[in-house]
Amino acid sequence: MTAIRSPLLTAGYLGSQVTQLTRPLPLWPLHVLFTAFPLLWVLGVGAFAAPIAAAPMAMVMWRNTQRVQIPRGFLIWVLFLVFLFASATQLDTAPRMVGFAFRLMNYLGATIVFLYVYNCSMRTLPARRAAGLVTIFWLWVVIGGFLGVFFPGGSLSTPFEQILPGAISTNEFVGDLVHPKFAEIQEPWGSPTVFERPSAPFAYTNAWGSHYALLLPFVLLYALTAAKKWHRPVIALIALASLVPAFATLNRGMFLAIGFGLLYAALRFALRGHVRWLVAVCTLMMVGLGAAYLSGLSEVISTRTEYSTTNTGRAAIYQEAFLRTLNSPILGFGGPRPSLSLGISVGTQGHFWNVMFSFGFPALALFCLWLWSLAWRTRWAPSSMMWLHVVPVMALFMVFYYGLDGTQLVLIFMAAALGLRPPDAPEVRPVAPEPWLTGARPRQAVTGDE
């Protein structure tokens, strides 16, 4: 069979290894990550969902493949991980080592998910099915948002919290992860209003907002390609309802990211001559803006901004992050450190600044180059698959003010992996099954992909 090279792989940096899978990769690890996320959250390990799902993925790939396919340019990301590992030499306290270990697990987990999805056959995991899995995750995010709206003072005592040593569980950052709250309750000094901002099923409201923004393109992709037509009106109704917790977060960054992503998609569709796509995107934006105006959202955000130091604080912390990184430009500091002038930590107000301060300027250049390459190399995605390309494009915008090293990075990598997969899937050979790993029956030999 003549191999057909995807145009998404022609503009690369390194040659990819063309290999063969000995059996199709099972999808149950992805269900653990997305479908079973509420269970992980209730157990207190929702923040560790990526490494938990990545562990069996790595084992399955090791057992089920002769050699894992690697996309062109992947060495850029490997070099970034090298600098990340090396930055651990700059750690000086046990709590900082714990934080570094958490971030490292998430980076490695996202890496494994990326390779796993990239190696999944299009027959086993078509883009529609992948978008459906992520849409289930989006549904849990919306439900968590409503928990924060109706029960803002609620929280969970989790099993994982109970088994952790007291010295670890009492750490403020760890406590936020293993004892999840339904909302962040903020009382800015002098403000006449207490702001109850939904955060469940994540530790922070900004995490809810960043996930919601990155999930929207997947949801749109699934709504446009769902095999069962009744799914589409149901998703539309849930999306409309999701505006309630979305507006309650008062998350300006989320609204900016969604607006940027939709405007970019509208422009790309218009340049391709797809007027109906342009009309649909513009209609979606108008509905959102109209709902925001009628709900009085702008006035509430204005009130919060008036009494909050978030704007001036971010500008100051960004400047401090750059200036202090000059003292350790190659390896950074291994992780965030307390600010010298503000009551927050340097490297916690945007992933761009976190990578720079924590891992140094070379790691920052590699991270940005990798993220840019994912967006660039998926730019020719056809038809509705364009929404996969929109995800890394949005990440390029969000990286300056959102942390993206949790399941946000998994979503970015998953969208890119789905867009970068070559259309000529590896040949699948009949082999003896291992039910405990795959849960699948032996399959007939097939060649190619859908």
From TrEMBL:
Residues 431-450 are annotated as: Disordered. The chain crosses the membrane at residues 74-91, 97-118, 130-151, 202-223, 230-248, 254-271, 278-296, 352-374, 386-404. It comes from Streptosporangium lutulentum. The keyword Cell division does not apply. The keyword Membrane applies. Keywords: Membrane, Transmembrane, Transmembrane helix. This is O-antigen ligase domain-containing protein. It comes from the Bacteria.
